[in-house]
Amino acid sequence: MRAIDQEVASQPDMWRRAIELGPGAQLPEAGRRLAVAGCGTSLFIAQAYAAAREAAGAGETDAWPASEFPRDRRYDALLVLSRSGTTTEVLDLLRSDHGIPETYAITGVPASPLAELAGTTVALPFADERSVVQTRFATTALVLLLAHAGVDLSASVSAAERVLTEPLPLDPARFRRFQFLGTGWTVGLASEAALKLREAARAWAESYPAMEYRHGPISLADPDTAVIAFGPLDPSLAEQIAATGATLLIPEPAAPLAALTLAHRLAIALAEAGDLDPDAPRNLTRSVVLS
User: Fold this and answer.
1) What pLDDT, on a 0 to 100 scale, did the predictor assign at position 285?
2) Which fold does the domain 3-152 belong to in CATH?
3) Same fold, 3-152 and 155-273
4) Axis-axis angle for helices 136-148, 256-273 (nearest 10)
5) Per-residue pLDDT tens for 197-252?
6) Does pLDDT of 1 surpass 80?
7) CB neighbour list of residue 222: distance below 8 Å, 6 or more residues apart
8) How do residues 139-179 score in pLDDT, each as one tens digit?
């Protein structure tokens, strides 16, 4: 079995462990003005968490690419995400004169440069991965963060188990283009889903806030397009998508994280159809380490 197959399949069990850890995890408390930073997948997870934390009433939260972090903006705490704990831009941010009194990190590797630099580190070695393409570490870190913010994720765990056992709702090899739509905190999930298809299968995959989709991107929709929504859509938007001939898929609306697991399965299936190895995409490494 490829590493990515096992890692994707293990997500419900990983999420249960994160839910147990969440309430007592050493993470920024509610009310703190928080900045969250990462690169690639970690950035999209940061975006999802930032929107969810604010929606849960836990405090003002901004998400930033580590390389674009604003040096003149004041925060009570900084949280960084890096599976490997070696991502150069994230380490550079922690080393910089950012002026933020509290720093936190989530990583899959306890003995890493990231853990040495952050004031408080939460390590999730049980969710670390061998595949270059991130799946379970990213979702487990997000579940941990959401559980700490008081979000109930039991429906997502059950839905993910169904996603992993049921047949795929569409054959990804039928489509030339994939467009993922989200609202609120699921905008970050949509971005991450599109990234998985690009990384693992070299697919033409994009993501947008749902109500922005008709402001240009819908012009690309046609019968060769699959549009996958992370939650219910405005009925008029759904009608417009149907009119293009595109296939519209809306997974279980109450369990957006399970829809991301579905995107993982679609990425793997699409890679297989193209005779690609989803564990080792071209031009990518487990961590971006710059000289």
Assistant:
1) 87
2) Rossmann fold (3.40.50)
3) yes
4) 170
5) 999 999 999 999 999 999 999 999 999 999 999 999 999 999 999 999 999 999 98
6) no
7) 177, 244, 245, 246
8) 999 999 999 999 999 999 999 999 999 999 999 999 999 99
What superfamily in CATH does domain 155-273 come from? Glucose-6-phosphate isomerase like protein; domain 1 (3.40.50.10490)
Phi and psi dihedrals of 61, rounded to 5?
A: -140, 130
Residues 71-118: pLDDT tens digits? Answer: 899 999 999 999 999 999 999 999 999 999 999 999 999 999 999 999
Q: What is the pTM of this model?
A: 0.96
Pair of tokens at residue 33:
């003005």
Distances from the Cα of 24 to the Cαs of 28, 29, 30, 145, 148, in angstroms? 11, 11, 13, 11, 7
